[in-house]
Amino acid sequence: MSSQITVHVAGSERTVEQGTTAADLFADDRQVVVARVGGELVDLEHVLAEGDEVEPVLVTEDEGLQVLRHSCAHVLAQAVQQTFPDARLGIGPPIRDGFYYDFDVDEPFTPEDLKALEKTMQKIINSGQTFHRRPVSDDEARHELAAEPYKLELIGLKGGASEDAAEGASVEVGGSQLTIYDNRDRQGVTVWGDLCRGPHVPTTKIIANAFKLMRSAAAYWRGSEKNPQLQRVYGTAWPSKAELTAYLDRLAEAERRDHRKLGAEMDLYSFPEEVGPGLPVFHPKGAILRRTMEDYVWKRHIEAGFSYVTTPHLSKEGLFHTSGHLPYYADGMMPELDDDGQAYRIKAMNCPMHNLIYKSQQRSYRDLPLRFFEFGTVYRNEKSGVLQGLTRVRMITQDDSHSYVTREQAADEIKHLLDFVTSLLSDFGLDDYYLELSTRDETGEKKDKFIGSDEQWAEATAVLEKVAVESGLQLVPDPGGAAYYGPKISVQAKDAIGRTWQMSTIQYDFNQPERFGLEFSAADGTRQQPVMIHSAKFGSIERFIGVLVEHYAGMFPPWLAPVQVVGVPVAEDFDDYLKDVAAQLRAQGIRVELDLSDDRFPKKIRNASKSKAPFIVIVGGEDRDAGAVSFRYRDGSQKNGVPVAEAIAEITAAVRDRVQV
Questions:
Q1: Is residue 295 scored above 70 in pLDDT?
Q2: Residues whose CB is less than 8 angstroms from the CB of residue 596 and which lie 6 or more positions away in sequence, other chains included
Q3: pTM of the entire structure?
Q4: To the nearest 5 percent, what fractions of the chain are helix, strand and coil?
């Protein structure tokens, strides 16, 4: 029997000795941390077989980085049990920009504990421990993990439903075969182990010093308040120390831009405990910002051929059974309200009521496309733990639109909507974006959460994909991310510091027209079913405002700024002159505030700068005598002796032209 086998490495055929591992193939490249064999990620110690298709996975790739972070989570867990021997282990998955691990400990972790754990982790990393995969039976796992009650519970969840049963569980028991990863020292002695699906980096030395523990917080086991409360430690890990430093710098900048902090400083909105979590209230300046956005998008919808409608905030429960929301989206809806035995629901979506408007009269093919939109506030039963200022709320006001079209019109309507969306984002200063195509999960654990035939999904997906490709924008697949009733395109926009936000969405719906029995009279006299295209340009006005506050760091362009001009007199003698200038600006629709307080002039200037208004107008003796004003801009520059008419023209032009200053 030959001692050699043939494998395919990154597309090239190679002959190697039997017993060759992936590590042997990529030993000269320290950036390779795992391999993909037959499409599956495996450890580098994986022994290759005849005909294997092998690809290297670098630590700089998304999948490689996830593996690095998961390995760092294991090092954290080892450090915790080394420092707190009675600590019991929960789940430790990689997440965006890092990882976390849950622990059952007697006392919450303190900042000093995290610093001590970092030092212990560094010692473990420097010792060069190696990760080794070991398959075990369920009974063997239960025996080895007898002192780990949460791991024992996970063993009972293994297989396809693990992620539904507990967030992050799939990294430990996601497959049919249980495995334990042993951490071995340089002498080959196992010093620690954990139930884990893997894979892992070959050695802790790859983590180096490019990691940091960020914070700790309470977290209920498996996300349920009925379960014990654990301590969750969040950390981050990167391929290099330089990338870690850059990430921490981005976090510092993000903290400076935090819309919750800036919203309080600028008196835009607040989150009163008396109202409830996820239910913001908008103060006068925040309401001006919001109304400016609403007026803009209302006008844009009318120009784009939409008719404005309004619908109630609640409805009989049966409406949401018809639409499919209660059968498929019940967890996201608020609990029912009882009115003398009649169940009502606060709406989580506007589309069912728009369908009733469509159905209120006979429709002809000549009426299509028929377009409705409204500023509809809907309510989602979000868990309190995921609420995040304005970017994750329970009250969502959507510029929600629905286009009813023939199948033949669907592609043109989607293009029409995509052009609308991208021009809107550009007007708001969000010019860096790409498209994401969300499709149904066809083989995974969520495949039964989608309704409709294979043919309907294939047609809808093909139409969306064709329009997206023809747009010339980058298109990224999102398998399994579709709504239950159809696929969607979402626009992913990057803000000023490079963070990506999901903004506008366009969804193709073939299910609701069927469920509501929507029809139109076709040219040949037959009754046919329209296609329904959902679209939200802002998505959520609340969320869009939160993103804009952080994108601009509160320094909105003139057309959006709640206060566009702050007027500051050098002394009280110039108050009346400044009031007259302000009156002329207000006559042009400009939003003006005057500081006529008793504060000294330098303090007034400091306060005006903190307001983040685009223009500070200053008047003194020379200005008054010359019929002029002086400008101070947000960048600190100043322009003196500007005639009042020219000053008004500059300000109104900046607002009219939506200048990004």
A1: yes
A2: 569, 572, 575, 578
A3: 0.81
A4: 40, 30, 35
Q: Are strands 395-405 and 433-439 parallel, antiparallel or unpaired?
A: unpaired
- How confident is residue 595, by pLDDT bands cut at 50, 70 and 90? very high
Confidence of residue 451 (pLDDT cuts 50, 70, 90): confident
Active site residue 72: no
Catalytic residue among 88, 351, 512, 551: 351
Alpha-carbon distance of 380 to 145, in angstroms, equals: 39
Task: State the average pLDDT for the chain.
Answer: 92
What gap in Å lies between CA 398 and CA 357, rounded to an integer? 18
Annotated binding residue 351: yes
Per annotation, catalytic residue among 398, 507, 512, 564:
398
Active site includes 351? yes
Task: Check residue 48 and report its DSSP letter.
Answer: P
Question: Rounded to an integer, what distance in angstroms lies between the CA atom of residue 121 and that of residue 213?
Answer: 10
Q: Tell me which of 488, 543, 604, 624 is the catalytic residue.
A: 488
488 catalytic, yes or no?
yes
Q: Which of 347, 402, 551, 612 does the annotation list as catalytic?
A: 402
Specify the pLDDT at position 519: 96
Instruction: With CA atoms as reference, report the closest residue to 580 among 630, 625, 624.
Output: 624
Checking if the pLDDT of 158 tops 70, the result is no
Known catalytic residue at 229: no
Active site includes 250? no
Is 402 designated active site?
A: yes
Residues whose CB is less than 8 angstroms from the CB of residue 250 and which lie 6 or more positions away in sequence, other chains included: 497, 498, 499
Q: Which amino acid is at 623?
A: D
